[in-house]
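Figure S4 source data
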Amino acid sequence: MERNKTPSFTLSIIAIILGVTLFKQFDFENLKFEKPWLAIVYIIVFVTSIYFLIKNFKNK
């Protein structure tokens, strides 16, 4: 039972860190990211981690 909690916890930590990082890198005056290519990578990983969290939540 404890083994199933680890991926969920890890993915939630990754999602929180990437969400905060994306928020900090976004320039609200110009509506652009400071580093667009890095932001694309962050968004892909962020969306993937959220997808797996939702998928894991639905299976329980």
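Figure S5 source data
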Amino acid sequence: MKLFDMIKRFRSDESGAVTVDWVVLTAAIVGLGIAVLSQVKTGVDALAVDIKTSLTSAEVKQLGSLGWGNGTE
């Protein structure tokens, strides 16, 4: 009879339920974050390539060629 009483108490004990809830919630948030990152990664990579291309092909102009520093201000 003692074994059955222990099993009944074990089944009705909810002391670890909050911990399990937090673990499940945290796992869901992490999973959602990974899903979002995998979707956003392609766009961010393309944007980074566009920025790199723009910066690589840019040239620095001298102030005189822009109308500054040659007495025309």
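The radius of gyration is 32 Å. Residues 11-48 form one domain.
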